[in-house]
Amino acid sequence: VGPYVLVTPNETRRKQLQQIAKKELDDLEQWKKEHKPGPITLVPQRLGGNKSEAQVRQNQQMILMQSKYQKKHKREEYVKAKKAAEEAEILKKKEIQREKAERLEVKKRKEEMQRREMFLDDQKYKTNELLNRLDVGLPKSDSCQIANPGPESTAWERSHAYKQALREDENRRLEEMKQEQQRKAELMKFKQKQEDETRTRALKNEQRSCLQSLFIFYCTLRVNNAFLDRLQNKIQPNNIYQPGYTG
């Protein structure tokens, strides 16, 4: 705690302030007494009282019931309004989603059309290239009419001619594929037949070589046996074995 200075109260100043406050309070009380309202004087008149107590009670009951129905009606109106607002919000969201779906569908349709156009252009190019490469096909007048349609031909005729050319080209390619498969099948059959003949020929040659080897071995064996018999007869002339005996 720091140092402080003690100031003694001024009694004279305090008394003056108290006197001033007391005088102001006395003046306020005097003013209230002087401005006090006087008695009210009104002319007597008839006030209500034209209905009985039962009617008043019935009116009160009706007002109470009406207030209940009004509260119930207000509550129902509030629920209906809230439900309508929620349905409107849901419909708004559905509409937004529907618009998004429609935009997405339009975008997909555009992309599909672009892909189809690219595919048709590529197919047309391939078809023309195939028609130019093959000797058989549409006449030159038809191909020229399809490739370079004149201004007098309508869009439907050009489309019909182009579809007809594509159909004929597809049929021709299918026919070529069938012929190619048939040629491959015949080639495989011919190769299989050649392999079978080669295998049979090799087997016969092997059997023939085996028979020749056996024949040569048999002849060699007979020659050797005859030589051994002659040699044995010279060494043992009195042997019981006879020439040509192989043992």
Automatic annotation (TrEMBL):
Residues 71-116, 163-197 form a coiled coil. InterPro entries: EPSTI1. The keyword Coiled coil applies. The keyword Membrane does not apply. The gene is Epsti1. The lineage of its organism: Eukaryota, Metazoa, Chordata, Craniata, Vertebrata. This is ESIP1 protein. Keywords: Coiled coil.
